[in-house]
Amino acid sequence: MRARWFHTLPGRIGLSLVIGLLLAWLMSEGAFLILRESSDHAPHSIQLIIPLGTAERVAAGQASPSLPTDLTFVEGDTLVVKNEDVVDHQLGPVWVPPGATASLALDRAETYSVACTFQPSRVFGLDVRPRVTALTRVQAILLAGPPMAALIALYSLVIRPLPAKAAARS
Amino acid sequence: MPRSRFSLVAVGIVAGLALVAAGALLFAQPYTFHGSALNPPVAAFDFRLTDQNAQPFELTEQTGHVVLLFFGYTNCPDVCPNTLTQLNKIKSQLGDASERVRFVLITVDPERDTPEQLHTYLNAFNPAFVGLTGSASEMEPVWQKYGIFREVRAADSSPGHGHRDDAYLVDHTTRLYAIDPRGNLRLTYTLDTDADAITQDVRQLLNGQ
What is the mean pLDDT of residues B9-38? Predict the structure, then answer.
């Protein structure tokens, strides 16, 4: 059976749109699945333990090997700082007396460098990423789909031009 | 409506309400504090200092009240006036509940912040606020236990600014502390925390959260 609609401009554009949206969906969802852990996990707590002797090491200009220099969160996560040292410590807005544990709900996506007392650089990076919602995923498909469809349509016209009659009509 | 049908409708309504209540209980989210929360809470370091009326002020005597505590000084050019303005906003947002809240400024400049000086300064913001001072030996352990950094530095003596020997600034920690009615240190806030958010947290502390 000859697909006559394929040889019309509206048919070609429609098919390109379907293929474009399908490819955009495949790519977007594929990327989402690969990066899921860093963008869409259920809200959870990430604990940072400041070991005994950290202040002494920092005073000597040494970094504590067990402490990172930055952390990445997703909106809704909670930062928990447990201070096992003998002096109080600070990580940005979180202040922890010796032997205590403090937590902070990170409910705003933002990237900041905050003052901290347990790194010789006195700076710590906090990256709070926005949570990926169903709406974000649909937006990604709608943003990527139409340009991809336009390219497919152009490509198809180059490799399989419309018959002269159809081209003249459109 | 026949009696049996009426009973059936009544039972349906009660069952529906029970289901809604059960759902609300099941899915109710626990309150999340806006400040940095100490969990488990730690007993707030107790102190006995002198207030702006030259009367002793002891933290343990504030049981039953939420205490909002910050460290500053009356010659502070920027941070302290802003914090006191924010505390005023929190106080007015709390309305009658503010009767159960103590708003306390502890000086980081006891040399200049006498009770009289604190009295005059705080009256300009809110006479209900408490200003505390003491001798250096009384203040040191309080600063240390609350993790207060303080450093005295000369005020700008460049031409046009003038210079006096007693004109100095004190760099200091700007954290705000919330102590619950049981005397536990529960929350700390940075300077940029919204007053509305702190008010919500204080209400939770007053409700026994």
Answer: 74
